[in-house]
């Protein structure tokens, strides 16, 4: 066996819990730290109180603790250049540098790059000027998609059902500054009609190691009703993404994008995450993210094949192994959220029922926003837990996930009851 590694994961959500959970299982992991982590992550990693935005502080910690490999979870530190800061100090880190993270941090740059390299995506027009954007919107047929250029914590897109709604979205972003500088530039893009799927792969800058497919459920209520959230649950694999379509996603989107990034002088090392729409005309890129998906990680990492430490280290060294096809069974993750989420919500609610699930090997409860207190474990955010059920089939994993959800309680807790059901019905 190769040497054992001291690993630092940066972040504090469900995705980072899934990363820590998976990395800590590897025989290659000597010790796992997480900055800042959360109460659930503390079960598998030593949490250190350093903000994801304190890039020098994180690099100091990695140097002092002789960390062999850092894994940056969220997009914000990647867009701020955490990889550049670590590399300048000779510290190994998994993730794209700032110039490559532009794939997610500038939606307009991403679309321009995709168009230039003939990667299939919908049409778009960028705007710096509010009046010009309004004039353009006024002659479009709804639905009209208005998207902030920069990072807006998943809230920067409006699918307007009328010209008036599109004008309000433009005003909010460009005039009111609802998303700060991230929304002063916008694009109006073609509405892509079809199911959205998440395709992720680890990239070493040239080669890809595909991960299992997943589908996120963003709206708050069953049957995809109500406002969008950060994700109320997901499942893997995605039956509608057949082997042929998955191969098409790799050949028409993922590999050309990695090649294009290298050609642009921005070699992409990290997890490449494509949000794809299965339109009647074929697969189209909705957007790229420069990191693992959340909550997709909570179903992808438990079912992926291969050792994650080996893979992330190989990616950083530019030497990914040949992909292993398939995945281990199926997984469904149901997000339990605080009362009021995605609007205003209270925190500090005691969480009950987790002890009875701790020894199950068909259930993993990933913590997204929890805190340990003298009174016990309490909620500390909007999306609190990601309850993942594992099994041989999607339908079995759904039953397992909801059976576990029904054992957990906290005041105001709510979740969708239909995660994965449409896909399982179509199996
Ligand atoms: N599941 C959406 C995201 O990770 O951005």
Structure description:
The protein has helices at residues 14-24, 55-64, 75-80, 82-88, 98-105, 107-116, 130-138, 163-175, 243-263, 297-303, 308-316, 394-405, 421-425; strands at residues 5-11, 29-36, 46-47, 69-72, 93-94, 124-127, 144-148, 157-160, 186-189, 195-204, 208-210, 215-216, 219-221, 225-228, 233-236, 269-279, 282-289, 330-337, 363-367, 370-373, 376-379, 383-391. It is α+β, with helices and mostly antiparallel strands and 427 residues long. The protein has four domains: 5-99, Rossmann fold (3-Layer(aba) Sandwich); 124-189, ATP-grasp fold, A domain (Dna Ligase, domain 1), CATH 3.30.1490.20; 193-316, D-amino Acid Aminotransferase, Chain A, domain 1; 330-405, Alpha-Beta Complex (Glycinamide Ribonucleotide Synthetase, Chain A, domain 4), CATH 3.90.600. A five-stranded parallel sheet has the order 3-2-1-4-5, sandwiched between helices. Helix 1 (14-24) packs parallel to helix 10 (297-303) and helix 7 (130-138) packs antiparallel against helix 8 (163-175).
What attributes does this structure have?
alpha+beta, 427 residues, 4 domains, five-stranded parallel β-sheet, Rossmann fold, binds glycine, 27% strand, five-stranded antiparallel β-sheet, 30% helix, D-amino Acid Aminotransferase, Chain A, domain 1, Dna Ligase, domain 1
**Biggest beta sheet summary:** 5 strands, parallel
Count of runs of 4 or more consecutive helical residues: 13
Question: CATH H level of the largest domain: which superfamily?
Answer: ATP-grasp fold, B domain
Helix content: 25-40%
Low-confidence runs? none
Bound ligand species: glycine
Mean pLDDT across the residues is 96
CATH architecture descriptor text of the largest domain: 2-Layer Sandwich
How many distinct domains? Answer: 4
SS-derived structural category: alpha+beta
Q: How would you describe the oligomerization state of the chains in this entry?
A: single chain
CATH top-level class of the largest domain: Alpha Beta
Query: What is the rounded Rg?
Result: 21 Å
Distance between the termini: 40 Å
Q: Could you please say which CATH topology of the largest domain applies here? A: D-amino Acid Aminotransferase, Chain A, domain 1
């Amino acid at each position: 066996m190769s040497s054992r590694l001291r690993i630092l994961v940066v972040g504090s959500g469900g995705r980072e819990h899934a990363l820590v959970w998976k990395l800590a299982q590897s025989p290659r992991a000597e010790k796992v730290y997480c900055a800042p982590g959360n109460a659930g992550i503390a079960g598998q990693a030593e949490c250190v109180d350093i903000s994801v935005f304190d890039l020098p502080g994180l690099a100091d910690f990695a140097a002092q603790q002789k960390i062999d490999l850092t894994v940056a979870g969220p997009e914000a530190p990647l867009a701020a250049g955490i990889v550049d800061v670590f590399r300048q100090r000779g510290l190994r880190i998994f993730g794209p540098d700032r110039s490559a993270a532009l794939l997610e941090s500038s939606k307009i740059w991403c679309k321009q790059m995709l168009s230039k390299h003939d990667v299939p995506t919908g049409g778009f027009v960028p705007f710096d000027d509010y009046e010009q954007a309004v004039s353009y919107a006024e002659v479009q047929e709804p639905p009209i998609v208005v998207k902030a250029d920069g990072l807006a914590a998943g809230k920067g897109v409006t699918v307007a059902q009328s010209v008036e709604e599109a004008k309000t979205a433009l005003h909010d972003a460009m005039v009111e500054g609802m998303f700060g500088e991230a929304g002063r530039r916008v694009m109006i893009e073609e509405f892509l009609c079809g199911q959205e799927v998440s395709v992720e792969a680890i990239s070493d800058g040239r080669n890809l190691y595909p991960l299992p497919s997943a589908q996120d459920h963003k709206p708050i209520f069953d049957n995809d009703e109500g406002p969008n959230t950060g994700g109320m649950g997901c499942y893997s694999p995605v039956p509608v993404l057949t082997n042929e379509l998955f191969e098409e996603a790799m050949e028409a989107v993922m590999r050309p994008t990695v090649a294009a990034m290298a050609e642009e002088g921005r070699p992409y090392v990290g997890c490449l995450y494509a949000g794809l729409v299965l339109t009647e005309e074929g697969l189209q890129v909705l957007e790229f993210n420069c990191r693992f998906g959340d909550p997709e990680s909570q179903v992808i990492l438990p079912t992926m094949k291969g050792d994650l430490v080996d893979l992330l280290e190989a990616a950083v060294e530019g030497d990914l192994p040949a992909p292993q096809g398939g995945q281990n069974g199926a997984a469904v993750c149901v997000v339990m959220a605080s009362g009021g989420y995605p609007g205003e919500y209270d925190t500090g609610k005691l969480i009950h029922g987790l002890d009875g699930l701790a020894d199950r090997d068909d259930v993993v409860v990933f913590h997204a926003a929890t805190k340990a207190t003298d009174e016990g474990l309490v909620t500390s955010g909007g999306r609190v837990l990601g309850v993942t059920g594992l099994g041989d089939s999607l339908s079995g994993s759904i039953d397992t996930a909801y059976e576990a959800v029904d054992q957990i309680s906290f005041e105001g807790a709510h979740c969708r009851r239909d995660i994965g059901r449409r896909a399982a019905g179509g199996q």
